[in-house]
């Protein structure tokens, strides 16, 4: 196995473990901490911090620390957020969510930059097209990384499956579920109970242990810009989540999805046109010339 592929697998495994923990914890914030809207506020604050971080931090940290140490430092921000959930309050979750948000953009920018560098190094050593190797490495990474959603939610399900079975949901309450939920219905609720603190600690303990096995060790701006757009979408979505009916949210989601699919088609078309043009005078593309200038 080539050295660069081994490095990609190590990074992929690290992200798998990290987001198995964080992804499951994030999806439960609004449920575990519904009092006074703490959970939703935490998520809104988190992605607001990602928004600011994406504009300022990634190029600075990557050029100062290099990709690998930026990944390590950013992952520690996720650990701090998990620890804050052990003593959940406004005074612990808001600061740690800001810290996590500040670390998220450098983490993903460093990951994208590192995989791109590894792909270009391997392409140069093997005499292959850099674009093909980079695409292969990103495919391997996301194949491993995307499974984190399965494992994180599976752990949550197994832990909270210890709760007693709830009573049947009344028919009147079912009438305001799904797309018809406007968050203002006064239908009586079934006898739900708050999740026992012991189970929350059990879940957090499982998630935090996963961090212990993580490894030790102008494209930065492009990757940061991707996270900037993602964070902006989350902030807007969390902002209107408490004011709109689910049916309205679904129409908004469908409209944005159609818009982004059209925009992606335009980008693909423009990229295919650019690839069809030979570089003037056989010059190397500027992006490729600068590949090795970024610290690993």
TrEMBL record:
This is Protein unc-93 homolog A. Residues 286-296 have a biased composition (Basic and acidic residues). Belongs to the unc-93 family. It comes from the Eukaryota. It is a multi-pass membrane protein. GO terms for cellular component: membrane. It comes from Pteropus alecto. The chain crosses the membrane at residues 39-57, 69-88, 94-117, 137-160, 199-215, 227-244, 250-267. It holds the Pfam family UNC-93. Residues 275-296 are annotated as: Disordered. It is found in: Membrane. Keywords: Membrane, Transmembrane, Transmembrane helix. InterPro entries: Ion_channel_UNC-93, MFS_trans_sf, UNC-93_regulatory. Its main location: membrane.
